[in-house]
Amino acid sequence: MSCFLCVGKSREKIESKNNSSYIEKKQSTISSADKVKIDMHLNLSVNDKSEDDSKHDQLSLDVKNLNLNDEVSTDGKVAKTFTFDELAAATGNFRVDTFVGEGGFGKVYKGYIEKINQVVAIKQLDPNGLQGIREFVVEVLTLSLADHENLVKLLGFCAEGEQRLLVYEYMPLGSLENHLHDLSPRKKRLDWNTRMKIAAGAARGLEYLHTKMKPPVIYRDLKCSNILLGDDYHPKLSDFGLAKVGPIGDKTHVSTRVMGTYGYCAPDYAMTGQLTFKSDIYSFGVVLLELITGRKAIDHRKPHKEQNLVAWARPLFRDRRRFSEMVDPLLEGQYPVRGLYQSLAIAAMCVQEQPNMRPVTSDVVTALNYLASQKYDPQIHPIQRSRKRSSSPGKSEGHRRVTSNDSETSDRSKD
């Protein structure tokens, strides 16, 4: 059963029906669950700062305005700051030919910053977005602390006046979504080995967030468009604006407004607002299914019973004789039968309706690391019989972020 009723453009957010009420609540949307360590350099009081000083410490003001001053430690690290003029120069004043895409909360440009001698990706947040500032702060706080080969690197940020920009390492191959869906005839198809490599790398990035980050982080927006690919299809998770600090100690979940992307959001989280690490596991299972089948999480071009990928796959999981029907036809039969069975078994466990039935991230990583190490060679291994892809006119509607109307709270807070 669908958790949300979604219509409209790709990644459009469903906001509270009462926008005025929502805006009033905006200041309290980051609770004690968002405690992170970061050096905000709050050596001067805001009232004593000159206008010029405040311009270069706007992130501190954002934290204060979001009621985070008492939640931030001063012994961590913070990403490098850039001026708006530097980033405008890096992109030729954001020329059209430097535009590379648009995410949920801003446009992305390719640029070159001379003082660090590096090609970068610059995301300019939409100043009119209701949640843009909050997500900007959360992303800076999260990625300033993160250091893993499967997480995109935040090189710095700019916070001047109303301008909010994030500067990342540039990922030359773009997103996984661009290599898996709606491919042009000349676009290279991902082979089986590359798909398993991407799945294993994404799982390792998720494991780092869940078990190595201090405090641990729930990603909350894992999907194909947020997995970026570097040279040799090296995957990195990106876009951490919806990230939440996970439950700590004997707490089992964090209660929060439901936010995520239709088709990837765990049904238990969508219905209860109780966010757990297993919510990310469900989303990962959907991504793994996309890698195996070549289908989208939600595809309105397909017959009604096939539009939701998980709903379509569940009855097929129960019949091994039908596993071959689930394989992406673009693989043209070039995949290992045992590898297919094992990867589908992992996906099936990840998308279990009951969260306690889903595996922990470390188990997913162990299984996928093994699968990625088992290289398939079509010159040696047999080619399987493949079904043809049914043709569908036009492109499907894109994935959309969704939110609930409930106020965001933390089950870990006694306040």
- Proportion in helices: 25-40%
- What is the level-2 CATH architecture name of the largest domain? Orthogonal Bundle
Name the overall outline: globular
Strand residue percentage: 5-15%
Q: List the secondary-structure elements in sequence, H or E.
A: HEHHEEHEEEHEEHHEEEEEEHEHHHHE
The CATH class of the largest domain turns out to be Mainly Alpha
Count every helix, treating DSSP H or I runs of 4 or more residues as helices. Answer: 12
Rg value: 22 Å
Which spans of ≥5 residues are poorly predicted at pLDDT below 50?
1-56, 68-75, 388-397, 405-415
Q: Reading side by side through the largest sheet, how are the strands ordered?
A: 3-7-8-6-5-4
- Sheet with most strands: 6 strands, mixed
Terminus-to-terminus distance:
35 Å
The number of distinct β-strands equals 16
Class inferred from helices and paired strands? alpha+beta
- CATH topology grouping of the largest domain: Transferase(Phosphotransferase), domain 1
How many domains? The number is: 2
Please, what is the average pLDDT?
80
What is the CATH superfamily classification of the largest domain?
Transferase(Phosphotransferase) domain 1
